[in-house]
Amino acid sequence: MIKAGIIGSTGYAGQELVRLLLGHPEAEIVWYGSRSYIGKKYDQVFGNLFEIVDAACMDDNMEELAQRADVIFTATPQGLCASLVNEDILSKVKIIDLSADFRIKDVSVYEKWYGIEHKAPSFIEEAVYGLCEINREKIRNCRLVANPGCYTTCSILTLYPLVKEGVIDPDSIIIDAKSGTSGAGRGAKVNNLYCEVNENIKAYGVATHRHTPEIEEQLGYACGREIVLNFTPHLVPMNRGILVTAYGNLTGDYTDAQIRAIYQKYYGKERFVRVLEEGIAPETRWVEGSNYTDVNFRIDPRTKRVIAMGALDNLVKGAAGQAVQNMNLVFGLPEETGLKQPPMFP
């Protein structure tokens, strides 16, 4: 059994990690870390796990945890994992970090967009960006995984085949994305109160959202050069889900059949990316609670653009599910182990 420890287990992504790992046939949780609830029973924080989890919340002592666990998940705010990790810890345990600390290779870009000093820049180069469908082989042999963000996972998977094959001009990309409120975390914020969110939709982080450089960097690798794009997120009054609608200028005269063949080339054999049938737009309700990403596209001959669409659950494929998928790769398990749950509906 893989012994797993979670630092930040009482956030939304952390609790989703707990839920998934409890159903994983090859893993057991040995540490429920939570700085906010040290000593409190975990099922008193999350009543859905009453008589399922009989453990108390512990601190974020990564040194001690590295002695007990085979893998540490850090579902924490930016900066914490980088402040705790060191060579001694990495020599003992694998780390899958759900924050942005090791996603961006350029330290100055990270510090500019996140507004904090990076505490462990020496480990950035070896960290592997944990988007399994793209970096599968690198993930298998690494000790530090940078688990991608939710918006970025959906945006990159939606656009990657088009950018990789040169079907669109990457500098023409505009990404319109929408997220449920759980994407903002479990902390108490006025902007996330029921009366603030209900019956409302709004753009936020316009031209400044922190996932922008992450998307640009990864799609830049796909096309072999640096790119600049527009990314605008929106908050919608639902618990879970990411919906991406992205636009790009076509570089030639492509037919629907040609572009569909490109998507099938990259995703036809993927377990967790579903290329929908012609004319079917991705919907968040059809991926909720699952590790699936649904993608599709439509060519607009009038504007000579392609409209690419994607949907996923921000807490599963956008966070905890992807982290478990990464764990499976690191420990040589079938990628879908513990992640076969079909989407929930209603």
What's the structural blueprint in terms of helices and strands?
Elements: E1 2-7, H1 12-22, E2 27-33, H2 42-45, H3 62-68, E3 71-74, H4 80-84, H5 87-90, E4 94-97, H6 107-114, E5 128-129, H7 132-140, E6 144-146, H8 150-164, E7 174-179, H9 194-197, E8 202-203, H10 212-223, E9 230-235, E10 242-249, H11 256-267, E11 273-275, E12 293-300, E13 305-312, H12 316-330
Parallel strand pairs: 1-2, 1-3, 3-4, 4-6, 5-6, 7-9, 11-12
Antiparallel strand pairs: 7-10, 8-9, 10-13, 12-13
Helix pairs in contact: 1-12, 7-12, 8-10
Explain how this protein is built.
- There is one protein chain.
- By secondary structure, the chain is of the alpha/beta class.
- The chain folds into two domains: 2-126, 3-Layer(aba) Sandwich (Rossmann fold), CATH 3.40.50; 151-314, Dihydrodipicolinate Reductase, domain 2, CATH 3.30.360.
- Helix content is 31%, strand content 19%.
- The protein is built from twelve helices and 13 strands.
- Helix 1 (12-22) links the parallel strand 1 (2-7) and strand 2 (27-33).
- The protein is globular.
- It starts with a strand and ends in a 16-residue tail after the last helix.
| Strand numbers in spatial order across the main sheet | 8-9-7-10-13-12-11
Rg is 20 Å
The CATH homologous superfamily of the largest domain: Dihydrodipicolinate Reductase, domain 2
Percent of sequence in beta strands: 15-25%
The number of distinct structural domains comes to 2
CATH class of the largest domain: Alpha Beta
What does the overall shape look like? globular
Arithmetic mean of pLDDT: 97
Order of helices and strands: EHEHHEHHEHEHEHEHEHEEHEEEH
Biggest sheet statistics: 7 strands, mixed
CATH fold type of the largest domain: Dihydrodipicolinate Reductase, domain 2
Termini separation comes to: 34 Å
Share of helix among residues? Answer: 25-40%
Q: Any idea what the CATH architecture of the largest domain is?
A: 2-Layer Sandwich
Count of beta strands: 13
